[in-house]
């Protein structure tokens, strides 16, 4: 009997004699992943299939208009998790916009320094997912010298903006 290793759970299994090319075991979790994978690839590759899926989703939504409202009422934890994930996605998008200077305020004309602090921020620089916060602090205006002391009266060697 032929033995094969499942591409998902990596367990050894025996392919069905009706499907000699089987590469995923019969475990329901692995089969679900296989179907989801097939669906994703098919949607990406086949416009007709994509349209059929869209149509059936729209039909389903029009037949079940209250589904998501009821789901949110019955699964507050999932709603909260999704809200937090959406918050992270929004922040990432804002950071991306800031980097691309698209919809964000144009920072080109302000003299600003960006300081990356901390271990995880290498990921941020590489544009992978790192959680970080950006603080934008307004710089203090340059300090005016006291009225009594003009530039001419300064002795050579004295710092222009001395402490005091
Ligand atoms: Zn498996």
Question: What are the key terms here?
Answer:
single chain; 164 residues; mainly alpha; two-stranded antiparallel ribbon; 2 strands; 2% strand; elongated; binds zinc ion
Textual characterization of the structure:
The protein has a two-stranded antiparallel sheet. Helix 1 (28-45) packs across helix 2. With 164 residues, the protein is mainly alpha-helical. The protein is elongated and about 95 Å long. 1% of the residues are buried. The protein has helices at 28-45, 47-63, 67-74, 76-100, 121-125; strands spanning 4-5, 12-13. The longest helix has 25 residues, at 76-100. 45% of the residues lie in helices and 2% in strands. It has five helices and two strands; from the N terminus they run E-E-H-H-H-H-H. The mean pLDDT is 78. Zinc ion binds next to loops.
Describe how the helices and strands are arranged.
Elements: E1 4-5, E2 12-13, H1 28-45, H2 47-63, H3 67-74, H4 76-100, H5 121-125
Antiparallel strand pairs: 1-2
Helix pairs in contact: 1-2
The structure holds zinc ion (ZN).
Residues 6, 8-9, 11, 24-25, 27, 30 line the site of zinc ion (ZN).
């Amino acid at each position: 009997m032929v033995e094969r290793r499942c591409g998902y759970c990596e367990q050894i299994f025996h392919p069905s004699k009706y499907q000699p090319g089987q590469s995923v075991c019969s475990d329901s979790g692995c089969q679900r992943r296989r179907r989801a994978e097939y669906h994703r690839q098919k949607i990406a590759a086949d416009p007709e299939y994509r349209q059929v899926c869209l149509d059936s989703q729209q039909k389903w939504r029009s037949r079940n208009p209250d589904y998501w409202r009821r789901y949110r009422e019955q699964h507050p934890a999932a709603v909260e998790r999704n809200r937090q994930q959406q918050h992270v996605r929004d922040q990432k998008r804002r950071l991306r916009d800031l980097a691309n200077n698209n919809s964000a305020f144009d920072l080109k004309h302000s003299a600003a320094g960006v300081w990356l602090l901390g271990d995880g921020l290498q990921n941020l620089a590489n544009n992978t997912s790192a959680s970080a916060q950006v603080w934008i602090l307004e710089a203090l205006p340059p300090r005016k010298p006291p009225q009594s002391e003009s530039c001419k009266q300064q002795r050579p060697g004295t710092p222009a903006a001395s402490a005091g």
